[in-house]
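Input sequence (290 aa), recorded before submission:
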Amino acid sequence: MKTYLDCLPCLLNQALNASRAATDDEELHRQVLNRVAEMIPELSLGLNPPEIAQQCYRLIHEVTGNSDPFREAKEVATRAVLGIYPRLKEVVATAAEPLLTACKLAIAGNSIDLGPSYNNHGSVDNIMEEALASPLAVDNYEQFLSGIKKAHRLLYLGDNAGETVFDRILIEELLRVKELEIDFVVRDKPVINDATLRDALAAGIHKVARIISNGSDAPATILAQCSPEMLELYNTADIIIAKGQGNYESLSEEPGNIFFFLKAKCPLVARTMGVNVGDAILKQSHNAND
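Predicted structure, token format:
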């Protein structure tokens, strides 16, 4: 997905929020905004939004000296969702369609995001209730289920901390339905509240899947930046789950049997998908090679 002019003021807003999370020093907040403003005229709109955000968050680290400003928020989110893990498991187990319910919960968990202006997840109880009550605005579940039945190797591209607990529940349900080899991919270094190895371990992902780093600090999966190991897994996976808006922005034009699980969090993404902001999406890539 390309970058639009509308993305640039959003970038400034994200920079201010992240700098405030990184430090209480208002002078450093101003320095971050000045540096990002200086960077904007040089940015190519040919880059996708996560590539531009990556440059912004590197700059925030450089100015503030804080490499993980959302660390505490990530830990709080993970603990909160783990607190209702037994209830989530019961909801899935007693549902008429357990796998579909687990998919909807995983998508609803994508609300836990500190990057875009859309950040309306409320409590984890609200996320669960929303998942059960709301239909999928883009519903390619049947195609996903068909793909799972034929698959042996699944690559799961994670997104945010806290959300990873919902991902764990989906993986557990997938393994109940079908014997699969699953690799769960995290960011190599902290960026926004995206999950790193530390966050995935805290969520218990290691109990259900092998965790690997993608080799990049972008808030997405940018294949040109990924490690050889990650690319090998990407190219040989039978099916790929790509969580979150960032992964949609970076992978929507890439090849692969990709299923995007996300909440539409900005008007531009919503418009490209023909949905409303806040809608839940389970969408197969138009470049699916199966």
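Checked by second reader. The mean pLDDT is 92.
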